[in-house]
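Data deposition worksheet. Section B asks for the primary sequence of the deposited chain exactly as it was used as input, without tags or linkers unless they were present during the calculation. Section C holds the resulting structure in token form. Section D is free text for depositor observations; keep each observation to a single sentence. Incomplete worksheets are returned to the depositor.
Section A, Depositor: J.P.
Section B:
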Amino acid sequence: MKCALILLLFIIHVVSVFGEKREVLAINIDINGVDSVKSSKREATMIKFTGSIDHPNFKGKVLPGGVDTQVQESGKGRTLSARYILDGTDAKGQKCKIFIENNGDSGSNGGMNNTKPKVITDCKSLEYLEDSNLSGTIESRGMGVYIRIFDEGTSSSPVNNAQGNKDSCWSKKLGYDCCNDCTVYYTDESGRWGVTSDGKNWCGIKSSC
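Section C:
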């Protein structure tokens, strides 16, 4: 029975850690002001916004001060760089904030549907996003837009099991707790993996083992 469970966890782990794109945040953005300046060669636009988020990982609002700065040069694509802070609670009900910087480039076709987000957060349950390989999409919705942020399933800063303090929990950055024992069931490029005491999830083997 335990062998079958470990096999199932192995399959789930491989899918979730390597290549499985999963939505981690989705934000409703409400535009409430636009300022722009245009010269003979380029145009700059600043779009002010607020918004809200009601996602399993985080619920809250966009704090005042969010702005999307877009620059259009003659004969070139338009770039965007949006910066804002979410204030609310994570999946565990803990109050915390998330800073998001969302960058994109329309390229020559004029469309801008994909972005590259960066995250800084004091949410313990979401701090792994700071080192995750994130992508984003933009969808028009009424007088605003709908932002979806995905974890592509591979870390943008690979974790070395041998780095840091000997008992540091390296797997936290990948969304997994560290094991209470040293029994290894699987090894990959991230490190050595075990199974939690309740047999329900993977956990990282500490480098001191």
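Section D:
The helical segments are 2-17.
Residues 2-17+157-204 form one domain.
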